[in-house]
Amino acid sequence: MKICPQALAKRPPQPPAPLQAPRGPGRPARWHRRQGGVSLIEVLISLVLGLVLIGAVSTAYLANSQTFRQVENLARVNENARTTFELLGRELREVGGTQCGARLPTANVLRSGPTSPWWTDWGQGLHGYEGTEPMSARAFGSGTADRVSGTDAVVIWSGSTLAPVSIESHNPPSAVLHVNTNDHGLNDGDIVIACDQRQAAIFQVTNANPGTNSTIVHNTGQGQRIQPGNCRKELGLSPAAPHDCSTAGSNHSFAAGGFLSRLSVTAWYIGHNGRGGTSLYRMVLGNTSGTAGTSPEEVIENVVDWQLHYLEPSAGGALPGSYVDATLVTDWSRVQAVRLAPTFVTAEAVGTDGNPINRTLPFVVGIRTRLP
To answer: Binning pLDDT at 50, 70 and 90, where does residue 50 land?
Structure first.
Protein backbone atom coordinates (compact mmCIF):
# COMPACT_ATOMS: atom_id res chain seq x y z
CA MET A 1 0.00 0.00 0.00
CA LYS A 2 1.37 3.34 -0.96
CA ILE A 3 1.18 6.30 1.38
CA CYS A 4 0.98 9.62 -0.21
CA PRO A 5 3.66 12.01 1.10
CA GLN A 6 1.16 14.88 0.94
CA ALA A 7 -1.14 12.95 3.31
CA LEU A 8 1.67 12.50 5.80
CA ALA A 9 2.48 16.18 5.71
CA LYS A 10 -1.16 17.10 6.42
CA ARG A 11 -1.55 14.59 9.27
CA PRO A 12 -1.54 16.33 12.69
CA PRO A 13 1.21 15.33 15.11
CA GLN A 14 0.22 12.59 17.47
CA PRO A 15 1.03 12.72 21.24
CA PRO A 16 3.58 10.23 22.42
CA ALA A 17 2.19 7.03 23.66
CA PRO A 18 2.08 6.78 27.43
CA LEU A 19 4.67 4.65 29.11
CA GLN A 20 3.41 1.23 29.71
CA ALA A 21 4.49 -0.51 32.85
CA PRO A 22 5.12 -4.15 32.58
CA ARG A 23 2.00 -6.03 33.22
CA GLY A 24 1.85 -8.28 36.18
CA PRO A 25 -0.25 -9.23 39.15
CA GLY A 26 -1.20 -6.22 41.31
CA ARG A 27 0.61 -3.73 39.07
CA PRO A 28 -1.39 -1.15 37.17
CA ALA A 29 -0.99 -0.93 33.51
CA ARG A 30 0.25 2.64 33.70
CA TRP A 31 2.75 4.31 36.17
CA HIS A 32 3.83 7.89 36.71
CA ARG A 33 7.24 9.33 36.10
CA ARG A 34 9.56 8.91 39.16
CA GLN A 35 10.12 12.23 41.02
CA GLY A 36 13.77 13.44 41.71
CA GLY A 37 15.38 13.14 45.34
CA VAL A 38 18.03 11.38 47.47
CA SER A 39 18.05 7.93 48.84
CA LEU A 40 18.44 6.88 52.47
CA ILE A 41 21.97 5.70 51.81
CA GLU A 42 22.93 9.12 50.44
CA VAL A 43 21.46 10.79 53.57
CA LEU A 44 23.43 8.48 55.85
CA ILE A 45 26.65 9.14 53.94
CA SER A 46 26.08 12.90 54.22
CA LEU A 47 25.50 12.63 57.98
CA VAL A 48 28.69 10.63 58.46
CA LEU A 49 30.72 13.14 56.45
CA GLY A 50 29.19 16.01 58.45
CA LEU A 51 30.02 14.33 61.74
CA VAL A 52 33.62 13.75 60.63
CA LEU A 53 33.94 17.42 59.67
CA ILE A 54 32.42 18.62 62.96
CA GLY A 55 34.74 16.30 64.88
CA ALA A 56 37.80 17.65 63.07
CA VAL A 57 36.76 21.27 63.70
CA SER A 58 35.98 20.53 67.37
CA THR A 59 39.33 18.84 67.88
CA ALA A 60 41.16 21.81 66.36
CA TYR A 61 39.13 24.24 68.49
CA LEU A 62 39.79 22.35 71.72
CA ALA A 63 43.50 22.08 70.94
CA ASN A 64 43.74 25.81 70.20
CA SER A 65 41.71 26.61 73.32
CA GLN A 66 44.03 24.52 75.50
CA THR A 67 47.08 26.15 73.94
CA PHE A 68 45.60 29.59 74.55
CA ARG A 69 44.92 28.74 78.22
CA GLN A 70 48.47 27.48 78.65
CA VAL A 71 49.96 30.59 77.06
CA GLU A 72 47.71 32.87 79.11
CA ASN A 73 48.53 31.14 82.40
CA LEU A 74 52.27 31.06 81.71
CA ALA A 75 52.16 34.74 80.76
CA ARG A 76 50.55 35.43 84.12
CA VAL A 77 53.31 33.45 85.84
CA ASN A 78 55.94 35.54 84.04
CA GLU A 79 54.12 38.71 85.03
CA ASN A 80 54.05 37.61 88.67
CA ALA A 81 57.77 36.85 88.52
CA ARG A 82 58.52 40.26 87.05
CA THR A 83 56.42 42.01 89.71
CA THR A 84 58.18 40.04 92.45
CA PHE A 85 61.55 41.05 91.11
CA GLU A 86 60.57 44.72 90.84
CA LEU A 87 59.01 45.04 94.31
CA LEU A 88 61.30 42.83 96.35
CA GLY A 89 64.41 43.72 94.38
CA ARG A 90 63.84 47.42 95.02
CA GLU A 91 63.73 46.89 98.77
CA LEU A 92 66.69 44.51 98.86
CA ARG A 93 68.88 46.94 96.92
CA GLU A 94 68.24 49.59 99.61
CA VAL A 95 68.86 47.39 102.66
CA GLY A 96 70.14 49.48 105.59
CA GLY A 97 70.31 52.62 103.48
CA THR A 98 68.99 56.11 104.10
CA GLN A 99 68.60 59.19 101.94
CA CYS A 100 71.94 60.34 103.33
CA GLY A 101 73.89 57.18 102.55
CA ALA A 102 74.59 53.78 104.02
CA ARG A 103 76.43 52.54 107.12
CA LEU A 104 75.54 55.63 109.12
CA PRO A 105 75.51 55.20 112.91
CA THR A 106 71.84 55.26 113.91
CA ALA A 107 70.18 56.29 117.14
CA ASN A 108 66.94 54.44 117.84
CA VAL A 109 64.81 56.22 120.46
CA LEU A 110 61.67 54.11 120.04
CA ARG A 111 60.54 52.95 123.44
CA SER A 112 61.38 49.30 123.97
CA GLY A 113 60.41 46.70 126.52
CA PRO A 114 60.55 42.98 127.29
CA THR A 115 58.22 42.27 124.37
CA SER A 116 59.20 45.02 121.93
CA PRO A 117 57.76 44.63 118.45
CA TRP A 118 60.12 43.14 115.89
CA TRP A 119 60.12 46.29 113.78
CA THR A 120 61.47 48.54 116.55
CA ASP A 121 64.94 47.02 116.16
CA TRP A 122 66.84 48.70 113.32
CA GLY A 123 69.07 45.66 113.52
CA GLN A 124 71.51 44.95 110.72
CA GLY A 125 69.29 45.96 107.83
CA LEU A 126 68.52 42.39 106.78
CA HIS A 127 67.69 39.10 108.45
CA GLY A 128 66.65 35.84 106.81
CA TYR A 129 64.84 32.80 108.18
CA GLU A 130 64.95 29.23 106.95
CA GLY A 131 61.76 27.25 106.41
CA THR A 132 61.80 25.76 109.90
CA GLU A 133 62.86 28.92 111.78
CA PRO A 134 60.08 30.90 113.47
CA MET A 135 59.80 34.59 112.66
CA SER A 136 58.41 37.18 115.06
CA ALA A 137 56.79 39.11 112.22
CA ARG A 138 54.41 36.24 111.35
CA ALA A 139 53.95 32.83 112.93
CA PHE A 140 53.41 29.52 111.17
CA GLY A 141 49.76 28.58 110.83
CA SER A 142 46.93 27.58 108.53
CA GLY A 143 44.80 30.72 108.69
CA THR A 144 44.64 33.46 106.09
CA ALA A 145 47.98 35.34 105.85
CA ASP A 146 49.68 32.88 108.23
CA ARG A 147 53.15 31.75 107.21
CA VAL A 148 53.40 28.43 105.38
CA SER A 149 55.57 25.94 107.22
CA GLY A 150 58.75 24.97 105.38
CA THR A 151 59.10 28.22 103.42
CA ASP A 152 61.84 30.83 103.85
CA ALA A 153 61.29 34.43 104.96
CA VAL A 154 63.25 37.68 105.16
CA VAL A 155 62.97 40.97 107.07
CA ILE A 156 64.24 44.20 105.50
CA TRP A 157 64.91 47.56 107.18
CA SER A 158 65.63 50.68 105.13
CA GLY A 159 64.79 54.32 104.65
CA SER A 160 61.54 54.79 102.80
CA THR A 161 61.58 54.49 99.01
CA LEU A 162 59.26 57.54 98.94
CA ALA A 163 60.70 60.99 98.37
CA PRO A 164 61.97 62.54 101.63
CA VAL A 165 61.44 66.11 102.84
CA SER A 166 64.28 68.47 103.70
CA ILE A 167 64.88 69.61 107.26
CA GLU A 168 65.25 73.39 107.41
CA SER A 169 65.64 73.86 111.16
CA HIS A 170 65.78 71.77 114.32
CA ASN A 171 65.41 72.75 117.97
CA PRO A 172 66.57 69.67 119.94
CA PRO A 173 65.58 70.92 123.44
CA SER A 174 62.04 71.63 122.21
CA ALA A 175 61.98 68.45 120.09
CA VAL A 176 60.76 70.40 117.05
CA LEU A 177 61.76 69.91 113.44
CA HIS A 178 60.76 72.27 110.62
CA VAL A 179 60.69 70.86 107.11
CA ASN A 180 60.55 72.59 103.74
CA THR A 181 56.85 72.02 103.01
CA ASN A 182 53.48 71.90 104.70
CA ASP A 183 52.50 68.95 102.51
CA HIS A 184 54.97 66.58 104.14
CA GLY A 185 52.38 63.80 104.50
CA LEU A 186 53.49 62.78 108.01
CA ASN A 187 50.93 62.10 110.74
CA ASP A 188 50.90 61.63 114.49
CA GLY A 189 52.30 58.18 115.28
CA ASP A 190 54.34 57.70 112.09
CA ILE A 191 57.72 56.01 112.54
CA VAL A 192 60.31 58.10 110.70
CA ILE A 193 64.05 58.31 110.16
CA ALA A 194 66.03 61.55 110.07
CA CYS A 195 69.56 61.67 108.71
CA ASP A 196 72.45 63.89 107.73
CA GLN A 197 76.07 63.21 106.82
CA ARG A 198 77.01 62.34 110.42
CA GLN A 199 74.24 60.10 111.73
CA ALA A 200 70.64 58.94 111.50
CA ALA A 201 67.88 58.74 114.11
CA ILE A 202 64.68 56.69 114.28
CA PHE A 203 61.76 58.10 116.27
CA GLN A 204 57.97 58.40 116.38
CA VAL A 205 56.19 61.60 115.39
CA THR A 206 54.16 62.89 118.36
CA ASN A 207 52.59 65.87 116.62
CA ALA A 208 52.24 66.86 112.98
CA ASN A 209 49.71 68.74 110.91
CA PRO A 210 50.14 67.85 107.24
CA GLY A 211 48.83 70.53 104.92
CA THR A 212 48.65 73.09 107.76
CA ASN A 213 52.22 73.72 108.92
CA SER A 214 55.73 72.38 108.52
CA THR A 215 56.35 71.47 112.16
CA ILE A 216 57.23 67.91 113.20
CA VAL A 217 57.42 67.21 116.95
CA HIS A 218 59.33 64.28 118.50
CA ASN A 219 58.52 64.46 122.23
CA THR A 220 58.54 61.38 124.43
CA GLY A 221 54.79 61.33 123.98
CA GLN A 222 53.95 57.82 125.17
CA GLY A 223 50.30 57.45 126.11
CA GLN A 224 47.01 56.18 124.84
CA ARG A 225 47.30 58.33 121.73
CA ILE A 226 50.91 57.55 120.73
CA GLN A 227 52.35 54.04 120.90
CA PRO A 228 55.05 52.89 121.50
CA GLY A 229 56.39 56.46 121.94
CA ASN A 230 59.93 57.77 122.29
CA CYS A 231 62.09 57.11 125.32
CA ARG A 232 63.76 60.55 125.07
CA LYS A 233 63.78 63.77 123.07
CA GLU A 234 67.47 63.65 122.25
CA LEU A 235 68.17 62.21 118.81
CA GLY A 236 71.97 62.12 119.13
CA LEU A 237 74.15 59.05 119.45
CA SER A 238 75.04 57.49 122.77
CA PRO A 239 78.68 57.49 123.91
CA ALA A 240 78.82 53.83 122.93
CA ALA A 241 76.70 51.32 121.08
CA PRO A 242 73.93 50.35 121.14
CA HIS A 243 72.45 53.77 120.43
CA ASP A 244 68.99 52.90 121.73
CA CYS A 245 66.89 53.38 124.85
CA SER A 246 69.24 51.26 126.93
CA THR A 247 71.84 54.06 126.88
CA ALA A 248 71.68 57.81 127.31
CA GLY A 249 71.67 59.84 124.12
CA SER A 250 73.02 63.27 123.24
CA ASN A 251 71.61 66.34 121.55
CA HIS A 252 72.10 66.51 117.82
CA SER A 253 70.70 68.98 115.32
CA PHE A 254 69.62 67.85 111.87
CA ALA A 255 69.29 71.40 110.59
CA ALA A 256 72.39 71.32 108.36
CA GLY A 257 71.22 69.54 105.24
CA GLY A 258 69.19 66.77 106.86
CA PHE A 259 66.34 64.70 105.42
CA LEU A 260 63.24 63.15 106.97
CA SER A 261 61.16 60.22 105.67
CA ARG A 262 59.04 57.32 106.86
CA LEU A 263 60.92 54.25 108.01
CA SER A 264 60.43 51.19 105.81
CA VAL A 265 60.29 47.84 107.62
CA THR A 266 58.86 44.82 105.81
CA ALA A 267 58.81 41.06 106.35
CA TRP A 268 58.37 38.93 103.22
CA TYR A 269 57.06 35.36 103.43
CA ILE A 270 54.80 32.75 101.80
CA GLY A 271 51.35 32.69 103.39
CA HIS A 272 47.97 31.01 103.02
CA ASN A 273 45.64 33.22 100.99
CA GLY A 274 42.32 31.87 102.25
CA ARG A 275 41.31 30.64 98.78
CA GLY A 276 42.91 27.24 99.02
CA GLY A 277 46.29 28.43 97.70
CA THR A 278 49.38 30.32 98.81
CA SER A 279 50.70 33.77 97.95
CA LEU A 280 53.69 36.00 98.57
CA TYR A 281 52.91 38.28 101.51
CA ARG A 282 54.66 41.10 103.30
CA MET A 283 54.15 42.59 106.73
CA VAL A 284 54.17 46.38 106.42
CA LEU A 285 54.81 48.99 109.10
CA GLY A 286 51.87 51.37 109.37
CA ASN A 287 50.02 53.71 111.69
CA THR A 288 46.51 53.33 113.10
CA SER A 289 45.31 56.47 114.93
CA GLY A 290 48.73 57.08 116.47
CA THR A 291 49.57 53.46 117.26
CA ALA A 292 52.33 52.07 115.10
CA GLY A 293 52.04 48.45 114.04
CA THR A 294 52.22 46.05 111.15
CA SER A 295 49.63 44.34 108.97
CA PRO A 296 49.86 41.66 106.25
CA GLU A 297 49.46 42.48 102.57
CA GLU A 298 48.97 39.91 99.82
CA VAL A 299 51.40 40.91 97.06
CA ILE A 300 51.61 38.09 94.50
CA GLU A 301 49.20 35.15 94.23
CA ASN A 302 50.01 31.56 93.28
CA VAL A 303 53.49 31.50 94.82
CA VAL A 304 53.93 28.08 96.42
CA ASP A 305 57.53 28.29 97.65
CA TRP A 306 60.76 30.22 97.50
CA GLN A 307 64.33 29.56 98.53
CA LEU A 308 66.61 32.36 99.74
CA HIS A 309 70.41 32.18 99.84
CA TYR A 310 72.90 34.84 100.85
CA LEU A 311 76.37 35.94 99.78
CA GLU A 312 78.43 36.87 102.85
CA PRO A 313 82.04 37.99 102.36
CA SER A 314 84.50 37.38 105.14
CA ALA A 315 85.49 40.08 107.60
CA GLY A 316 88.45 40.80 105.32
CA GLY A 317 86.23 41.20 102.26
CA ALA A 318 86.99 37.86 100.55
CA LEU A 319 84.03 36.43 98.66
CA PRO A 320 82.88 32.91 99.54
CA GLY A 321 82.63 30.11 97.05
CA SER A 322 78.85 29.95 97.11
CA TYR A 323 75.64 31.38 98.51
CA VAL A 324 74.55 29.94 101.87
CA ASP A 325 71.34 29.33 103.81
CA ALA A 326 70.20 31.82 106.44
CA THR A 327 71.35 29.54 109.26
CA LEU A 328 74.96 29.78 108.01
CA VAL A 329 75.15 33.59 107.92
CA THR A 330 77.38 34.85 110.74
CA ASP A 331 77.00 38.63 110.29
CA TRP A 332 73.96 40.02 108.47
CA SER A 333 75.58 43.43 108.11
CA ARG A 334 78.12 41.88 105.69
CA VAL A 335 75.66 40.21 103.30
CA GLN A 336 76.12 41.75 99.84
CA ALA A 337 73.67 39.84 97.67
CA VAL A 338 70.58 37.64 97.90
CA ARG A 339 69.64 34.84 95.51
CA LEU A 340 65.90 34.20 95.37
CA ALA A 341 64.23 31.21 93.72
CA PRO A 342 60.43 31.66 93.91
CA THR A 343 58.22 28.87 92.57
CA PHE A 344 55.03 29.98 90.84
CA VAL A 345 52.05 27.85 89.86
CA THR A 346 49.50 28.50 87.14
CA ALA A 347 46.02 29.52 88.24
CA GLU A 348 44.43 26.73 86.17
CA ALA A 349 45.25 23.06 85.58
CA VAL A 350 46.68 23.51 82.09
CA GLY A 351 49.48 20.95 82.16
CA THR A 352 49.50 17.98 79.82
CA ASP A 353 49.01 15.77 82.87
CA GLY A 354 45.89 17.67 83.91
CA ASN A 355 47.63 19.52 86.77
CA PRO A 356 48.80 23.13 87.20
CA ILE A 357 52.24 23.97 85.82
CA ASN A 358 55.03 24.93 88.26
CA ARG A 359 57.84 27.29 87.29
CA THR A 360 60.86 28.20 89.44
CA LEU A 361 62.34 31.49 88.23
CA PRO A 362 65.49 32.46 90.19
CA PHE A 363 67.12 35.88 90.25
CA VAL A 364 69.91 37.61 92.19
CA VAL A 365 69.75 41.06 93.81
CA GLY A 366 72.88 42.91 94.87
CA ILE A 367 72.59 45.15 97.93
CA ARG A 368 73.61 48.47 96.45
CA THR A 369 74.44 50.04 99.79
CA ARG A 370 77.03 47.34 100.52
CA LEU A 371 78.65 46.58 97.18
CA PRO A 372 82.29 47.67 96.96
So the answer is: confident
